[in-house]
Design a protein that fits this description.
The protein is α+β, with helices and mostly antiparallel strands. The chain is 23% helix and 28% strand. It has three domains: 36-172 and 208-222, Jelly Rolls (Sandwich); 225-319, Immunoglobulin-like, CATH 2.60.40.10; 332-628, Glycosidases (TIM Barrel), CATH 3.20.20.80. An eight-stranded parallel barrel has the order 25-26-27-28-29-30-31-32, surrounded by four helices. A six-stranded antiparallel beta sheet has the order 3-2-4-10-7-8. A hairpin with a 2-residue loop joins strand 15 and strand 16. The longest helix is centred in the middle third of the chain and has 18 residues, at 415-432. Bound molecules: (2S,3S,4S,5R)-3,4,5-trihydroxy-6-oxo-oxane-2-carboxylic acid. (2S,3S,4S,5R)-3,4,5-trihydroxy-6-oxo-oxane-2-carboxylic acid (GCB) binds next to loops. Keywords: Glycoprotein, Glycosidase, Hydrolase, Lysosome, Signal. It catalyses: a beta-D-glucuronoside + H2O = D-glucuronate + an alcohol.
């Protein structure tokens, strides 16, 4: 891990692997008659450890007293990346440990009642975190996009008169064994670089935003509590089948009442078993947006756990009943062919970086629906659970990707990397397994899968993921280099990224039809598996125009899209099952000669305003929806273009 100068940090970090276990559940925190939630979002005290070895915080034990007592602090909003919050370039580009601290007044009854578990939960922090409460370490976690938590009841009860001081140290250093990988490179030529100069190299195309990115909160459960619920759904004719398993902690015997309710809170099935199958007559299936007039239908599975005397814990899980299957040419949702017409996204916006932001989330869903997008891929890491919950409710289909992006160095295919990658998949599946919107796992993006160790690596990784969740297909995203197919025999769907007339033959729009056609024929010819064009696109600087089109203009981006679309229209009749534009919106990257303040392949700007390409895509996606979906009759195509446009505006 990050080691400019001192061994202390490395020592602390090596302990990490042992803590990354997933033998307990990771249910999304929620309030119920037995549970309370206290959000700790807002301003935290903050300091970046700019000492030469980045290790002063550990050497001087900054966690032992208030952060303001060991040096200067600044206000830092949580959740947010810290990089774009100040005017200080050294903080924007910082690599190493940063320290967050916040004092919390815990409700007296939580402290007084020994029967209450108090859990501290961090939605995500990038990349490596260590957490202390009142100076005592409670947990550490490796990985930037998944939640972690610790029970802190006994600690806050030690001295109920003092406020609860939470300290979180976060390190964004990426190494060959992290996910995503990176390297730290020291520049020792003193004629060129100052003393101690180093850079963080990364092999992916987005800014390495860091900090506490998702909500931090305290929540309570009773001592005996519902720790996890797993749901798998199916249906037979008109009967829905909800196979469930509940795991309870803190009680040797537990009495359960499991009730499945419809949207009107009417009970449709119930049971008192810890696991079983609930049957739902006249089932309302979960359908994707634009595939049905009532998409995203969710039941509620209420789990009540009690002892002889009273109800102990109540947890309610939203449940969408649907199936997913893959044939050699189709992707089936509820046994009907589903065509992905969607986007690739990033968690990225001005000022906040990767910090969760509700206005942005809701705006993005409105834009996706406006566009007629029915799906997205969580390129290139797991997104916030709050976003997946929106997808469940709105019927937006998700390809759920782990942070396996930029695996390019042969040393990142070693055992330590693989072990960590498997652990990340454990955590991802544990978190997202119950979301009906999640229809496929993506274990990596554009790995150097031509390298000899890649075959074993991906075979193991994909088999492991299928073992965790036999109900969903698994893929990894490849690029137009056919040699990178060593993992392809093990995937269910081939996902290909290509940038013809951009990275290959720049400026030559005329090569797209032939090269794209060849791409599809090659992959299908070899593997006979359905294909998704998982990325395609071109940078366009908003407001830059030229005719005939030139690279970086809005016109060029339009033509790239149209030429790709022509080929998709031929191939989707055969085995192409989807198209995901790169990218939904412009996003920040590291500085470099190919990026003009970030990647400009968005069809929306970073501020979410449409470029010309957004209208091309909107027109196409609504047309596709009318051909392949089941829409309310008045939005049906064919009709005059004017009526059509008017109709789908109304539909929104
Ligand atoms: C890709 C990557 C994506 C990049 C994109 C580009 O293949 O998967 O992360 O941002 O190309 O624009 O270069």
């Amino acid at each position: 891990m990050f080691l400019p100068g001192g061994p202390g940090v490395l020592g602390a970090l090596c302990l990490c692997a042992v803590f990354n276990t997933v033998d307990s559940g990771m249910l999304f925190p929620q309030e119920s008659s037995s549970r309370e939630v206290k959000e700790l979002n807002g301003l935290w005290d903050f300091r970046a450890d700019k000492s030469p070895n980045r290790n002063q915080g550990f050497e001087r034990a900054w966690y032992k007293s208030r952060l303001a007592e060991t040096g200067p602090v600044i206000d830092m909003p949580v959740p947010a990346s810290y990089n774009d919050i100040t005017q200080d370039p050294s903080l924007r580009d910082f690599t190493g440990w940063v320290w967050y601290e916040r004092e919390v007044v815990v409700p007296a009854r939580w402290v007084a009642d020994e029967g209450t578990r108090v859990v501290l939960r961090v939605g995500s922090a990038h990349y490596y975190s260590i957490v202390w409460v009142n100076g005592v370490k409670v947990t550490e976690h490796e990985g930037g996009h998944l939640p972690f938590e610790a029970e802190i009841g006994s600690l806050i009860r030690k001295d109920p008169t003092t406020p609860c001081r939470i300290t979180i140290a976060v390190n964004n250093t990426l190494t060959l064994k992290t996910l995503p990988p990176g390297t730290i490179q020291y520049m020792s030529d003193r004629t060129k670089y100052p003393d101690g100069f180093f850079v963080q190299n990364i092999y992916f195309d987005f800014f390495n935003y860091a900090g506490i990115h998702r909500p931090v909160l305290l929540y309570t459960t009773p001592k005996a509590y519902v720790d996890d619920i797993t749901v798998v759904t199916d249906f037979l004719d008109n009967t829905g089948l909800v196979k469930y398993t509940v795991s309870v902690q803190g009680a040797t015997t537990a009495t359960l009442k499991v009730t499945l309710m419809d949207k009107d809170r009417h009970c449709v099935a119930s049971s008192s078993d810890q696991s079983g199958v609930l049957k739902v007559v006249d089932v309302k299936l979960w359908w994707p947006y634009l595939m049905h007039e009532n998409p995203g239908y969710l039941y509620s599975l209420e789990v009540r756990q009690s002892d002889e005397r009273s109800t102990q814990d109540v947890y309610t899980l939203p449940v969408g009943i649907r199936t997913v299957n893959v044939t050699s040419t189709q992707f089936l949702i509820n046994n009907k062919p589903f065509y992905f017409h969607g986007v690739n996204k990033h968690e990225d916006s001005d000022i906040r970086g990767k910090g969760l932001d509700w206005p942005l989330i809701v705006k993005d869903f409105n834009l996706m629906k406006w566009l007629g997008a029915n799906s997205f891929r969580t390129s290139h890491y797991p997104y916030a659970e709050e976003i997946l919950q929106m997808c469940d409710r709105h019927g937006i289909v998700v390809i759920d990707e782990c942070p396996g992006v930029g695996i390019k160095d042969i040393r990142s295919f070693g055992n330590a990397s693989l072990t960590h990658h498997l652990a990340v998949m454990d955590e991802l599946v544990r978190r997202d397994k119950n979301h009906p919107s999640v229809v496929m796992w993506s274990v990596a993006n554009e790995p150097a899968a031509e390298m000899p160790p890649a075959e074993y690596y991906f075979k193991t990784l994909i088999k492991h993921t299928k073992g965790l969740d036999p109900t969903r297909p698994v893929t990894y995203i490849t690029d137009s280099n056919y040699a990178r197919d060593k993992g392809a025999p093990y995937v269910d769907v081939i996902c290909v990224n290509s940038y013809f007339s951009w990275y290959h033959d720049p400026g030559h729009l005329e090569v797209i039809p032939i090269q794209l056609n060849t791409q599809f024929e090659n992959w299908y010819g070899k593997y006979h598996k359905p294909i998704i064009q998982s990325e395609y696109g071109a940078d366009a600087v908003p407001g830059l125009h030229s005719d005939p089109p030139m690279m970086f203009t809005e016109e060029y981006q339009n033509v790239v899209l149209q030429k790709y679309h022509d080929v998709f229209d031929q191939k989707r009749k055969q085995y192409v099952i989807g198209e995901l534009i790169w990218n939904f919106a412009d996003f920040m990257t590291a500085q470099g000669i190919t990026r003009v303040v970030g990647n400009k392949k968005g069809v929306f700007t970073r501020q979410r305003q449409p470029k010309a390409a957004a209208f091309i895509l909107k027109e196409r996606y609504w047309r596709l929806a009318n051909e392949t979906g089941i829409l309310p009759p008045w939005t049906k195509y064919p009709c005059s273009q004017r009526t059509f446009t008017y109709a789908h505006t109304l539909f929104l």
